[in-house]
Amino acid sequence: MNKAIVASIATLVSLSSLGGCHGEPEHVDAIGKLVRAGAPFTLNDVYPGVVAKGYFFCQYSDPSEAAPYGFSKAQFYTADNDVHMWETATAVGVTFNDGSAPIIEWFPASEVDACDDTNNRGKTIEPDQVITITQVNKDLGPQGTRMVPTLRLT
Q1: Which long-range contacts (CB under 8 A, 24 or more apart) does 20-26 make?
Q2: What is the pTM of this model?
Q3: Tell me, what's the pLDDT at 9?
Q4: What is the pLDDT of residue 123?
Q5: If we measure between CA atoms, which residue out of 87, 105, 61, 90 comes closest to residue 141?
Q6: Taking the mean position of all CA atoms in its chain, how far away is CA 54?
Q7: How far is CA 120 from CA 32, 69, 116, in A?
Q8: How far apart are CA 47 and CA 41, in angstroms?
Q9: What residues form DSSP beta bridges with 138?
Q10: Into how many domains does the chain fold?
Q11: How many CB atoms within 10 Å of residue 17?
Q12: Neighbours of 36 (CB within 10 A)
């Protein structure tokens, strides 16, 4: 997929990806749509020209670890609002240089893995750092094993 198509998809999804739900983190799907497309991308492809930094958040993430970057507790799954997502979900958080509020895009374990062996909790992603997608066979417990798109930095 060429960079112009990635940029077009990213622009459309970034404009339509905001929403919220009762006591859970706001749902964002801009990165997820690009992951499902399968092509390498950067955070600047998703949010052109406004990304300050990106961060990986892994299972059992503690909101206090992300507070110094500007993220709020309300953006995280916890044992109180969704214990299953807190135990299994991974995410990419993005801070912006234009004053916009930071966002976190969470991924169910069966859909995307943002925290393989190379991506640790809180690891920084530079705006133009290429993120590739590798299909990895994951053990999903009662759901069995299946190939899951896994994010990797290059």
Answers
A1: 23/81, 24/77, 24/81, 24/82, 24/85, 25/74, 25/75, 25/76, 25/77, 25/104, 25/106, 26/75, 26/103
A2: 0.80
A3: 43
A4: 85
A5: 87
A6: 9
A7: 19, 16, 8
A8: 11
A9: 146
A10: 1
A11: 18
A12: 13
- pLDDT value, residue 12: 37
Check: CB of residue 85 under 8 Å from CB of residue 107.
no
- The two tokens of residue 103 are 């966002």
- CA dihedral sign, ordered 104, 109, 112, 117: positive
Provide the pLDDT for residue 137.
94
Three-state DSSP class for 96? strand
Query: In this structure, what DSSP letter does residue 153 have?
Result: E
- Amino acid identity for residue 10 in this structure: A
3-state DSSP call for residue 13? helix
Task: Name the phi and psi angles at 44, rounded to 5.
Answer: -70, -25
Range(s) of the domain holding residue 125:
3-153
User: How much is the pLDDT for 119?
Assistant: 61
Structure confidence at residue 143 (pLDDT): 86
Residues of the chain with pLDDT under 70: 1-27, 118-119, 121-122
At residue 28, the pLDDT reads 79
The C-alpha angle with vertex 9 and arms to 19 and 55, in degrees rounded to 5, equals: 60
